[in-house]
Design goal:
The strands form 3 sheets. This protein has a 3-stranded mixed β-sheet. It has a two-stranded antiparallel ribbon with strand order 1-5. A two-stranded parallel ribbon has the order 6-7. Strand 2 and strand 3 form a beta hairpin. Helix 2 packs across helix 23 and helix 9 packs across helix 17. Helix content is 50%, strand content 4%. The radius of gyration is 22 Å and the shape is globular. It is mainly alpha-helical. The chain starts with 10 loop residues before the first helix and ends with a helix. The protein contains 23 helices and 7 strands.
Amino acid sequence: PAGYKGAQRCLDCAAETGQRGAMIPLPSKSSVAAAALLAGNAAVCSGFTAPSLPMQTARLSASAARHTSSQPLRMVATPPLQPPGKSIDDPSVWEGTKNVNRELLVRIDDEWYDLSRWRAAHPAGTHWIDMFKDRDATEVMYGFHSTKGMEMMKRLPKAKHAPEGVAPVTQSTRNFRKWRQELVDAGWFEREWDKELFNVGSWAAAFTLGVCLSQFTGSIAMQFAAVTVLGIANTIAGWLSHDYTHGRGKFCEIMRPFGSFCGGMSPTWWSDKHNTHHALTNEVGIDEDIATDPALYLWAPDPKNDSPARKWQGVFWPIPMSFLFVLWRFDSLQVAIKRKLWPEVFGCLCHYAFVLSFVPPLTFLGALFVSGFMTAVITTVTHQGEELFFDKSPDFVDAQYMSTRDAACTNPFSEWLWGGMQYQLEHHLFPTMPRYKYPALMEAVENFGKENGLEYRITDEWTLLKMNIDIYKEVATLDAVPGAKASRPDTGKEDLGSILQKKIV
């Protein structure tokens, strides 16, 4: 889901800094789920059928997917950086992958590139290249890279041949690429300063009000009010951080440190974590935003991955959601320190020093729990009830329509609080577009779906929440399914959620 979303370090980072990207332990939203059992052990519509693919695409309805999920796990573990002096013929270079032919071909704009030698130098990690072996990465390239990064794509080595058995690009995807270029030419991706000022100003007003309320330390009522208002301000800060990390251009580049100074989290950490969800939405074993077990299960698990608390998840679901920001902040700072992202570490420390100079620690902690609950609810409900892909997902555009639902906010406050995440499909199709452009784009997104046999889905916010709670309750009653696909591969991650999961399950 969305929340404090972002785009990963782009191709031009490598050119400008000479940095070689290594796969780092990506924090998982499962950290929220795992924490619930620490506290809690105390805690679909059928869409357009994608064209046939040579490799099976398992598109299950939400209900069917939750009852059975025994497809074999396809995700590959991430290999280390290519050691200096070693060639791609050295077996150690490919250790941890299932790439038996030592050839890594990726399609971009109908051209196949051989990234076997380049994968280890990818600034956002080798896992991105590995995930798109024998797949089309065009939409990911345009969605996550700057114009300069796209220009550098011309330097990538072209493949001598195309891999066998790969389906051609669907007509809906080709139509989407044409439409996207038309929107670029029409200025839909340009920023509007009055709206940018309102977004920052509304956050600043909420944050200032929360700090002022927290000064009445002798009043419990005022402290509860401060917790609520500061929680809202933290959620809004998350949406702004998400905007600036996704966005392109000088303004977003300047504002990107907002995430660490005002949001208390590393923008780079968020970029690495979040974009897998954007690229392969609801693909089981890859998209960590649906890997919320062992506290909240979205389908019947294998007995070895099950938890005795599952039968109660329809009751305690608010607990893991409330832990979202507490654990994200922990994971974020841990990764930033490990990767020596000192400017981001400095920003986070400045954030804590400033906030804790004015806000009582317990009030601040309470605000993080309130914010975590609001953010988790907003960011989960637009995907969890839609199609889950237990094998390769369809082409990007088809998959986004099948796995994403918009939320219709019922009042102006909700419209502001959701921070653009109510336009989830528009955001997934055009992640670098300013969020205030999405309302005007909704009708066009719906019409594009009709013209290309894709279902546009939208539900009011309260009905959408009820749908997701019903899923938790339904899955709580199901028997475990031997061989059911795991929600995540065993990557040896060191984030808090993965550590807790190993101890709990």
